[in-house]
Amino acid sequence: MPHYRLYYAPGACSLAPHIALEEIQMAGLADYATTRLLLPAGDQRKSEFLAVNPRGHVPVLGFRLDGQAQTLTENLAILRFLAEQHPQARLWPADTLGAARASEWLSWLATDVHAHAFMQVFYPARYAAEAGAQAAVEASGRALLTRYWSDLEARLPQAVLDAGADEPAYALGAFSVVDAYLIAFYRWAKRYGFAPHERYPRWTALTQRTLARESVRRAFAEERISLDDPLPARPAPTLQENAA
Length: 244
What we know:
Shape: globular
Radius of gyration: 18 Å
Strand content: 5-15%
Helix content: 40-55%
Number of strands: 4
Number of helices: 10
Strand order of the largest sheet: 2-1-3-4
């Protein structure tokens, strides 16, 4: 049976592959272990982790393939790899258009939403030295995210709102790695004051359905996080920090 090691930070974007690995393990297709990094403590800058990923960020997936030790970084790569290695887990659409839609969602979330907009909100000091300019950077990021949340809400099918509790109504119809990724962003949106539970009913319904899955509950429990965690005070960021 394949064995994986996931390097993650609680509540970071590494939550998505954490959920995927739970789905795969619960299906009896592979097992996995985790290494927990605390970003405010600077674990991502320590030599032990930099030897695993010199870029100093999570997630990282460690595994063996054809007898060779491998490490894989970046959510898009990790999520697709896991889904394709274990098609029985049904984490990736089997049809060509569905697969393209999955890639479309993941690409948009990782680039426009995370790397472009959220990073301005997480770390405005990376983009400007003066306090006034930093406030403007953060405001820009928040404006982008507000627009993106409306886009996200509109892209979700009406079925996620109308379906009963036992019906398979997710972003792509059936549960996929897209839903595992979306719940991480919903948690961030709540923590940073966007009130998605008040403004975006489809996304909220999707999140509640996703959170009801055992795999998701197990990943949240191991990371010791919830949707309602308050935003803690943070030390000044460095270029190698990730958000949680």
